[in-house]
Design brief:
Blueprint (H helix, E strand, L loop, with lengths): L1 H33 L3 H12 L14 H21 L2 H14 L2 H18 L3 H10 L5 H10 L4 H29 L7 H31 L10 H18 L4 H13 L10 H28 L3 H6 L1 H24 L9 H9 L5 H12 L5 H29 L6
Helix pairs in contact: 1-2, 1-12, 2-12, 3-7, 3-8, 3-10, 3-11, 3-12, 4-8, 4-14, 5-6, 5-14, 6-8, 6-17, 7-8, 8-9, 9-10, 9-11, 10-11, 14-15, 14-17, 16-17
């Protein structure tokens, strides 16, 4: 009887995965025809298919299959984004990336928290907790957008690198504020800084070592015996980088991003694939990343709780408007303007002010707070979903238009 029940559950899960694949493929085609980022269509289709409307896709946010898709999908998309980063560009803008992904998260969280305190009428510590949850940008959203909307290299790579590097800061800050909220201890700036440094450096080392080894065994002139198995090696290494870093209490997302940078810059390391092998690997990564973001954003849309959102809709919208139009611009100008090495133009900084979509990582943090029954968790989850919907539906869809107006589209 148990095996029969397990079989039925497996068939049900398989049916929903098939529905997601079919709906995702069709919506991806529509997104290409109307020239908008496909993550926007995936989110809308997910909302349509979810329990709130058609009820065709119903995978709980706390289920094992959902967590597996979120972790692996985000890791693979982040690896894909890292592979597009060029070290020569990163050398030029690294100061801005470091400052905006650390100090910038604090600035965004503080301004958003103050807005939440006034517009939602929640205790200050709950408002600050909300600010920290949605302060980090989302690589799973931004990488696909910049894959489809070709922005000038240094701007696109700065925003993508920021989105990868600020996850650790966002998570550390969230749980530091949570500790104060539940009375388990005070906030220590020194401890938080040491923790951030440890997570980041360990993640960079693990991703760098695995990236170098993968490039060595795939593309070395003499020892590259895994060249024909390059797709399998990337899958194995992405899982290894994330799990290895996570097991050492480091940033798994940092590790997979750095792994992608190393593999994407293998020629700089003295390795080179043949043209056919490179084309085959690129096609595989592109297809896999497309499937991953399809699953992530359709599931994210399907899990939108319309009842919860409606409770705090007006206050939530007000907070997100301040978040988008005040917190982000202040953060960008305070962090990028002093970087004399990068010499950012006003148009470039204006574009970076608008591209800061919220997505999987803040959604996962909000879900964890709900599971932990943190103070104000339901309000935080509601406003987080409002932020996800508004930033993806408004900012992602207008990225190409704004880039064109500011003359930042790549040739």
């Amino acid at each position: 009887m148990e095996s029969s029940a397990s079989l039925e559950l497996a068939k049900h899960a398989l049916l929903m995965l098939g529905i997601i694949l079919a709906a995702g493929t069709l919506s991806g085609l529509i997104a290409r025809l109307v020239r908008i980022p496909d993550v926007v269509m995936f989110l809308l289709v997910g909302m349509l298919l979810g329990p709130g409307l058609l009820g065709l896709v119903n995978i709980r946010a706390d289920s094992t299959i959902n967590q597996l898709i979120l972790i692996f999908g985000s890791s693979y998309i982040l690896f894909d984004g890292g592979a597009t980063i060029r070290l020569k560009v990163l050398k030029e803008v690294w100061i801005t990336v470091v400052v905006i992904s650390t100090v910038g998260v604090l600035i965004t969280a503080a301004i958003t928290g103050i807005a939440a305190y006034y517009f939602l009428g929640v205790p200050l510590i709950v408002a600050l907790l909300l600010g920290t949850v949605i302060a980090s940008t989302d690589p799973a959203t931004l990488v696909p957008v910049f894959k489809q909307v070709h922005i000038k290299e240094r701007v696109a790579q700065t925003v993508m690198s920021e989105s990868a590097f600020n996850d650790a800061m966002g998570a550390i800050l969230t749980f530091a504020v949570l500790g104060v909220a539940i009375g388990s201890g005070g906030f220590s700036a020194g401890d938080a800084f040491v923790n951030l440094l440890k997570q980041s450096l360990l993640g960079i080392v693990i991703g760098g070592v695995l990236g170098y080894l993968a490039a060595f065994f795939i593309a070395h002139e003499k020892f590259g015996f895994l060249a024909e198995f390059a797709p399998a090696v990337t899958l194995m290494a992405v899982i290894g980088a994330y799990m290895g870093a996570d097991g050492m209490h480091a940033s798994g997302f940092m590790a997979v991003f750095v792994f992608g940078i190393m593999l994407g810059n293998q020629e700089s390391l003295g390795f080179k694939l043949t043209k056919d092998e490179d084309s085959q690997l690129e096609g595989y990564v592109m297809t896999t990343a497309f499937i991953m973001r399809m699953f992530i954003f359709i599931l994210l849309g399907a899990q939108v709780d319309f009842g919860l959102i409606s409770q705090y809709l007006l206050g939530g919208i007000a907070v997100v408007v301040v978040f988008m139009l005040v917190a982000r611009p202040v953060t960008v100008f305070m962090c990028a303007l002093p970087d004399r090495r990068a010499k950012w133009s006003f148009r470039e900084m204006l574009f970076m002010c608008w591209t800061r979509e919220t997505g999987v990582i803040p959604g996962a943090l909000a879900g964890m707070l709900v599971g932990m029954k943190a103070p104000g968790a339901q309000i935080i989850a509601s406003v987080t979903f409002i932020a996800i919907l508004m930033t993806i539906l408004i900012q992602a869809t207008t990225t190409r238009l704004l880039a064109k107006k500011l003359d930042l589209l790549a040739e």
